[in-house]
Please model this.
Amino acid sequence: MPHLAYVNGRYLPHRHAQVSIDDRASQFADAVYEVTCIANGRPVDHAGHLTRITRSLKELRISGAPSAAVLTVICRELVRRNRITRGIIYIQISRGIAPRAHGFPAASVKPSVIVTARAVAPPSETVAEQGAKVITAEDIRWGRCDIKSTSLLPNVLARQAAVEAKAFETLLYTPEGMVTEASASNAWMVDKDGTILTHPLGHEILGGVTRAAVIKLAKDAGIPVKERAFTLQEALAAREVFLTGTTTFVMPIVQVDDRVIANGAPGTVARTLRARYLAYIAHVTETDAAWNV
Ligand code: PLP
Model:
């Protein structure tokens, strides 16, 4: 079966799909992206991802990108042509192709658009049932982590540290000891009163699409949620720690560096939210109106 990718107006075999060496994504990481989960052949929170990429483009003043409706058509075509039932869509939009110069190119330069879709197995239930280990590292990223840009070198280094430590993720903390998020997921803890804490939206974190869904699911379940930053010390003493993300769903964390969290088993809140999030995925992939336009 052919594996097709979309590049600047054309559907091409993935292995032949290429962009210019003058694309600003490769020279300056002057590009934004989205990763959406496909389940049952349909996207999870497609509208949320489109809203976020539109915002990222606006924040970086990249204009002339395809509309949300056009991106939807491209995504749908790729999922259909590649016959993906379970997997991910990747969208990347750069400021375009121009001779290398730091300043923006002429307004006539059009953004470059890449969309790929590939089959990926769902995240392991075994890991989720046992709970995962994370390590920690100082957050050395720039001051606009709310923009989902392809400028990901600090995230890459943080994740590689996790890979080398055989850990699931790396929790990032500021010089003041506040946990921001993880290399590719949002971070959460449950305090001694059973309240869920997660870093508030702002320039320090990516506003996760999963984060927004999980806040709503927690509130629906009657679990109190406070969007306030917490320290690494608080996380170590927490009842529960967990992560959320498009490819992670809700992942209970049972060890942070060498410290076991609570009794070392996934907590009730994380397990409840994971179950509710799996049910949410099943529901939204049946009813997603944004995909059907
Ligand atoms: N934080 C960072 C730095 C990320 O890269 C991601 C996802 O890639 C997330 C959080 C989670 O965001 P989402 O739930 O939209 O996947």
